[in-house]
Structures are given as C-alpha cells and as structure tokens.
Amino acid sequence: GLLCSFQECFVCRESGATITCQEMVCDLSFHLPCAMEGECITHYIPPHSCYCCEHRPQQQKEVAPENTTCLTCLNPVVGRTTYRTMVCPVCKHAWFHRACIQRQALSAGLSCLGCPLCRNRNIFLMEMLFMGIQIPVREASWEHNSAYAPLHQRHSSCNAGECLCPGGREEAEPEGPWQLLLCHSCAAEGTHRRCANLENSSERWECDSCAGVGTCKCQSTWMCRG
User: Fold this and answer.
1) Could you give the CA distance from residue 89 to residue 81 in angstroms, rounded to a whole number?
2) What is the distance between the alpha carbons of residues 202 and 221, in angstroms, rounded to a whole number?
C-alpha cells in the first residue's frame, strides 16, 4: 500500500496509481479513472488483469465501410478498429464506439447484452469482456422499470357503448350475464355477455376494431343491421 501511494500514473502524472500493467517487461501504472483516457484495458473478470496502452489486447484488424456509423449513437466511427472503435467479432458489420457499448452493457447486463445487429451473445460477450468492457452480472435495468408495468396488466372493464351491468363496467363475475369476455384477437377491449347480447354458450368475442363494424364476422358489441 505504501509503495502504491508513490506510484506515478503515466496518464495524469499524479501519485497513488494502484494499477500496474500485467506485461512482465512493463512497469507503467495508472489510476482506474484514467484508464480510458490513457487507452488502457482492465478486465473486470478474474484474474482482473490490467494492461497499458502499449500492451493491451486488441481486436482483429478490420476496416469499416465508408460512412459507417455507430449502431448506438449513429455518429460516424473511425474507419478501422481502434481502442475507441469496436466491431462485432461475429458478423463484422456492427460497429460502435467503446463508450457507447459500455453504456449499453451497464444497462443490459450479462443476461441481455449481445450484438445489436446479428444478436450473437456468447462470442460477442467473451470478446467484450476480453476487450475490457464492464458487464454487470444482473438482469437488464429495463426489467425492473415500472414504466412497462401496464403491459403486464390484464384488461378488466366493459367497453360496450352502453354497459348494462348494475355493478358498473369494472364488475366481472366468473360466469353468467356479467361474465367479462376479452376480445379474442387483441385482448385490449372487453364486454359483459349481456352488454354484447352473447349467449352463455359463446366462448369467443371480438371487438369492433378486430371484427370490423357491421361485417358480421363474429359477434360484436353492436347489433348487425341489414
């Protein structure tokens, strides 16, 4: 610990650099926050190796087609693989900035991160880890986002033009005239049997949007005319 306090970071030239390049012949040290600025690579998986800009792992040399943009930010990328410009090792068509794929990795987590284009996960993940991308071992952040909660809720009200149920549109009984049926096609609208003039034996119902108003394709909330 005392020795590290005197180690000079080759990036910012300040003392206290606790990370030393793993290359046997190299004695360069750096601070973790200085790693990206100094184009160093830190492996966030055991054995947690770290490398300076000269000895860091590099992707296979690939040349990007003219006018290639990052799939994440849609800004242009350098025309070849560099520390800050990366490519999917599988399809070799998905190009992105290191900073962009790092932000995506922190959001997607180990369970969801993959190539944005070819969707390969196994080889893509190993390459990203080898290239120093930090990928947290957890589910994607959007899995816990309450904004998506309504998508998992079942529709639970009668959408008939005139609801006849004494208990109101939200009333739903297990069977009988006030049993609530959801549209067989979209499940986004519902009706009580009595409100749609459905027999107790009817098992399917479609809303006007799915059945087509007046087409008699199936029983709807409106009486067919003519």
Assistant:
1) 11
2) 13
107-121 per-position pLDDT tens digit: 888 888 999 899 999
Determine the Cα–Cα distance for residues 200 and 113; give it in Å rounded to an integer.
Answer: 49
Distances in Å between the Cα of 11 and the Cα atoms of 4, 15, 31, 79, 205 are 15, 11, 8, 26, 69
- 39 sits in the region (left: phi over 0; alpha: psi -120 to 50; else beta) called left
Q: Any idea which architecture 168-213 has in CATH?
A: 2-Layer Sandwich (3.30)
Q: What pLDDT band is residue 150 in, cutting at 50, 70 and 90?
A: low
In CATH, what is the architecture of 58-141?
Answer: 2-Layer Sandwich (3.30)
Residue 51, SS3 per DSSP: strand
**DSSP code of residue 18:** -
